[in-house]
Design goal:
flat, signal, alpha+beta, glycoprotein, 4 helices, Ig-like_fold, four-stranded antiparallel beta sheet, CD2/SLAM_rcpt, six-stranded mixed beta sheet
Length: 365
Amino acid sequence: MGCSVCLWLVVSFCRVWGMGRGTRETVLGTLGKATVLWIPQEFQNLTQSFGVATWKRDTADPHSKEVLLKYMNGNYTNYAPSQNHFHSSNFSLEILSTKRQDQRLYEYIISKDAKEKVWQIQLEVYEPVSKPDIQVLSWALANDSCTVTLNCTAARGDNVSYSWTGLEASSSSPCAHNGSLLHLSYHLNATSLACACTASNPVSSSAVTFNSSACSFEQRGSASPELNLVLVVVPVVVVLVLIGVFTALRVGRLWKHTPPPEDSEVRTIYSQVQRVEKQKIPCSPPGTEHPSCTTIYAAATGLPPDTAQAPGRIQHSPRAETPTPRGCSPLSQVRERGFPTLGIPIWAPRSPPSFLASRAPTRSP
């Protein structure tokens, strides 16, 4: 019995060894799902006999490889436990969540003394196909027949191919066609006509059905309620946005061109001159310091007594006669005595200019 087992192992070893380096297979992986890399039964037997094996894969550098796992006499070291899982029962390697970058060439290497044998696996990763949608590109009505052009497309998926079939399972069905476009002609009374579009790739497939109805663009596949909702909601949202923008621009334009409200009230400011006398100081001769005068402005609440204001005009109150300070000569006496008057009033300044109407300055003559 023992000799028979040994002979079987030798024959198996020779068969595998005869394959030579470069023997490979292709494994299809689905994006986002687990992928298992299996090895042939012969390699499993040799691994149990010699007890040394290694999982590797290619890298971007053609001169280097990435070691994923080492197996030796029942023990193993996994260098990427969060990404790969090793099944010690059959020595297979499972990729937990397949990614695009996992599409590499993997190698399972069995070592015997100074020699090694390699089993290569080329992993190809595909994104699964989403459920397709059928659109009516054109239609024409003539002689009680409807001719439509249908387009079947899938939003997601790698290397997607399309095929059309009839649900009545007849080879002569008008729906039989390969490709995403289908030119279909049917009689209007053929309300039971149904065509199925299948989108597929090497790892997945999905189908949708088209049912004939009135000859118009309203014909849709059974998988297009989302598209119908979008076709209804999007135009409404666009119209509401345009209305909002137009209203905002119009309001802004009106606000920009609206003149400020005019103030129809007429305000009159009267002034009162108050002389401040210095006690016991005689009138100084010309050229010396004069008694100071203070001008006080106050907002008028009405017209001054005995003053009539013409409509549309602003009148100022008559200037009060300024009494001559004690011990000082009036202006006429100053002129008679030959003192210069400098051409300005001495005791009663003129009415304040308009830009001083809002404040009460204090000045000295």
